[in-house]
Write a structure and sequence with these properties.
450 residues, four-stranded parallel β-sheet, 9 strands, binds iron/sulfur cluster
């Protein structure tokens, strides 16, 4: 298909509102150290699908020597935003800032096909809105629970659907009625003397599809002496929007969250979804041009902590019962690369007696979840998911554990494709089980499969 030019300007293809910053991309010295950790470069060996190639495209776009063609956009779209290149770069190139700025430009300046446009609109009009998502999940629950899914799959009718809709069907997580109905109270008291007063981010997708993870997080925090405040009026954090270039919507969500948690008056804001955490820690940068929020956003970001960070700051107080299990621990990209958090989840898991933590080969490579990536780039996501599953299974685990819900869905879907019945749990569910005294056999039998 011929490339489509979307601008008549002879020079830069980006407008003047936050183009990819030259002071960031000019730091790239083209050394190539980032290439081996880039999932798309690992798959295809294509320079323009490497961090270095994409940075070059952004620079050319800014300098008016590249056009916003279909191939330009494809190379940018194919980036997972996993930030493995940020970890690998010895020159400190903040690729995250480049890709986010570029995607916001694409959003404003590139016309997608009608199907692609509608597909993306559907995602952004559903996932960041818990009430809409909950309403949509009832028929999804009935579809699975009634056995209709098995019939539909067996009939082969799904093959008639476009690939992207099939991938949405394949990624439908297992959800129970109690999870769909779950609501959290506004406050959960600490057990024993209060050590911290923390706010809990319930998330948008998280509170509907992973309410059990939120409940486990609150129970563990309370057991460790934290008073847990759960502001009921909180909305989405805007991470999905930031990653996809919907800048204005993202900033509105960020302002809402700042207002809400300022009113809550907490010492820390606890997050159990890595993609949300990495975005919330960047609010100071995202709102830097907003005179009413710039300083408040910095103060807010300084309070944001992943659940593993909070727990490692607290000497364990609640007794952990043994869990004699071999678990493959998968590092989420937005935890290990975007937030630099690798040791803390392992430290937390090591407080559980008899738990054996297995290291997965090629741990730095993304599983293909990457926010909405597995919905908009399903083939690449599935390839990466299959690779991750193969690496997980090579450790012969009893279960796979991660600290990010998106990864749990992605790995679970890969395990299903591989025909392997290995339970997949959030790290905090394991800690909660150890504190509650849930036997390992019950954890495995119940499966907690996504
Ligand atoms: S963010 Fe990930 S996929 Fe994108 S260029 Fe960097 S390493 Fe590659
Ligand atoms: S490692 Fe850093 S400096 Fe080297 S090519 Fe990659 S982005 Fe550029």
């Amino acid at each position: 298909m011929a490339d489509t030019e979307t601008t008549n300007r002879a020079a830069a293809i980006f407008d003047d509102h936050n183009p990819p910053p030259p002071e960031v991309y000019n730091k790239c010295v083209h050394c190539g150290f980032c290439l081996p950790t880039c999932p798309t470069y690992a798959l295809w060996g294509e320079e323009m699908d490497s961090p270095r190639g994409r940075i070059y495209l952004m620079k050319m776009g800014n300098e008016g020597t590249a056009r916003m063609t279909e191939s330009f956009v494809r190379h940018i779209d194919q980036c997972l935003g996993c930030m493995a290149c940020v970890t690998a770069c010895p020159s400190g190139v903040r690729y995250d800032r480049l890709i986010e700025a570029t995607r916001a430009q694409l959003r404003r300046r590139y016309r997608r096909s009608p199907f692609e446009f509608i597909h993306r609109q559907m995602i952004f009009n559903l996932f960041p809105h818990p009430q809409r998502l909950r309403a949509a999940m009832w028929p999804a629950w009935a579809y699975k629970a009634s056995g209709l899914r098995a019939v539909v799959r067996g009939s082969g009718v799904l093959k008639l659907l476009p690939r992207k809709l099939r991938s949405m069907e394949a990624l439908l997580p297992a959800i129970s009625l109690s999870e769909l109905r779950a609501n959290m109270p506004a406050r959960i008291p600490a057990q024993g003397a209060v050590r911290k007063r923390v706010g809990l981010l319930t998330g948008c997708v998280q509170r509907v599809l992973f309410s059990g993870v939120n409940a486990a997080t609150a129970r563990v925090l309370a057991a460790e002496g934290c008073e847990v405040i759960i502001p009921q009026e909180q909305k989405c954090c805007g991470a999905l929007m930031v990653h996809a270039g919907l800048e204005e919507q993202a900033l509105d969500f960020a302002r809402n969250l700042i207002d809400v948690f300022e009113r809550a008056g907490v010492d820390a804001i606890v997050i159990n979804a890595a993609g949300c955490g990495s975005t919330m820690k960047e609010y100071g940068y995202l709102l830097r041009h907003d005179p009413n929020y710039a300083e408040r956003a910095k103060a807010f970001a300084a309070k944001c902590k992943d659940i593993s960070e909070v727990l490692t700051e607290l000497e364990p107080r609640a007794t952990r019962h043994p869990l004699p299990l071999r678990i493959a621990y998968h590092d989420s990209c937005h935890l290990q690369h975007a937030q630099g958090i690798r040791t803390q989840p392992r430290q937390v898991l090591k407080t559980i007696p008899q738990l054996e933590i297995l290291e997965i080969p090629d741990a730095a490579i993304c599983c293909g979840s990457a926010g909405i990536y597995n919905l908009v780039q399903p083939d690449t996501a599935a390839q990466l998911g299959d690779l991750k599953v193969k690496n997980c299974l090579s450790t012969r685990p009893d279960m796979v554990v991660s600290a990010n819900p998106g990864c749990l869905v992605q790995i679970s879907s890969g395990l299903e494709r591989a025909g392997k019945h290995v339970p997949v749990l959030h790290m905090i569910e394991l800690v909660d089980a150890a504190i509650q005294g849930t036997p390992a056999s019950a954890l495995q039998a119940n499966g907690h499969k996504r």
